[in-house]
Amino acid sequence: MISSEQLSRMFVEVADTLVDDFDLVEFLQKMADNAADVSGAASVGLILAGPGQRLRFMAATNLSGRKLELLQLQNSEGPCLDCFRTGEPVVNADLHEAHDRWPKFAPAAIEAGFRSVHAFPLRLRGETIGALNLFGREDVAFREDDIKVVQALADVATIAILQERNISRSDELADQLQVALNSRVVIEQAKGAMAQADHISLDEAFTLLRSEARSTHQRLVDVAQAFLDRHQYGA
Amino acid sequence: MAGGRIADLPTPGKGELWQLAYAWLDREPKPGGHELADTLDRVCGATSRGLGVAGTAVTVMSDGGHGAVAGSSSPRMRSLATLEFDLGEGPSREAFASRRPVLVPDLSGRAAESWPGFAVAAGGRGVGATFAFPLQIGAAALGVLSMYADHPRTLTSDEVGLGSIFAEITTEVLINDPAPSHDGELSSDLTNILDLRLEVFQAQGMVMVALGVSLAEALVRMRAHAFAAGRGLDDLALAIVERRVDLSAEMT
Question: Has this prediction a pTM greater than 0.90?
């Protein structure tokens, strides 16, 4: 259950992030962390829809979260996809009772030690642009109030994704999503480049990129881009 | 019970717009040759018909910001794309520099202020609207897919999606080219793998630094290596990320 203290801290953080020089990828990462905190979920993952409605991984609290998102995308089934498809949340789904619903995803998620799953749509004016997934090791049952808070988080994430420019025309939405997805790729490339250049792990590289972004007040994607520019050779 | 519903779900690489893009490609006459330019011409033709524009051109950018037209749906489109890069200004250059699509529904509107030289020159050649999509994989920017329409017009959200997909297909063709298996046919392997595997991008960054090449070249090397070794790109990327591949010894 969510405490009012958690709630206010979270929304202060959200308000802090929604400024002019806003860092989308960092924000979505925090969003996933927040959703995990307030819900008690062991893993949280976030996917977005790219051109042609192809779903792509965007952020996760940990490796398990990423693997569970990947598992769904690879098998074309799972709570995230159901949620994206219907635009409705999937709440308090017990994986042990979900074999019929997700014959590939459910057993694999149980095998990985998970017990329950929840998915919340990222919606804008009736259009679903992605989904937020919460995975619990125990049966994390949400109360009605908690669901409202997590859906509010998902709604704020949607606004954040689209606020970089004022989306007044529908063509700009497709454009904006593409830019968001590309930012994610730039950061992964920079993680690899830094890990190789400095003989460190990918996680360490990510931590360094994030702290540089924070200490220099730059967007994570800009720090990543600058690092790549410094290390890129040839045409 | 839920089986039927799941079958209807959008799957990676199989969204409606992707199917539409491949349907347009299928309708396009097969190229006479198997050269890269032939394949790019075919993608340009499909893009033009798919979006209902007068024509399309692919410009590949070099390190110093010089563009070379690598494919087009007609000689007129080739000269329009060349024009923009000769002038040193225009929506395609901006799309490349800003790494985002630049949509100009009316060349006599905002465009005339942003790129006065281009607006006049292209307007004089009968262009009413232009749409430019960057060819990129993360920070690896290869060039631009530029579409030109004879009259002012906007793109719908689906058309922007379709334009992005044709840009992704073009990127794939450019990255794919050195692979020995390339026979002028288009595959969706790369875009599918890229959707699912962040390790490919991480490995790309690692190979870039290890070999001292560009990001685009790093991906080309990875593809060639995976092909030669008879393994999947995703499998190779995982091995690279887990540092099970001696990059300087095996990838050069």
Answer: no
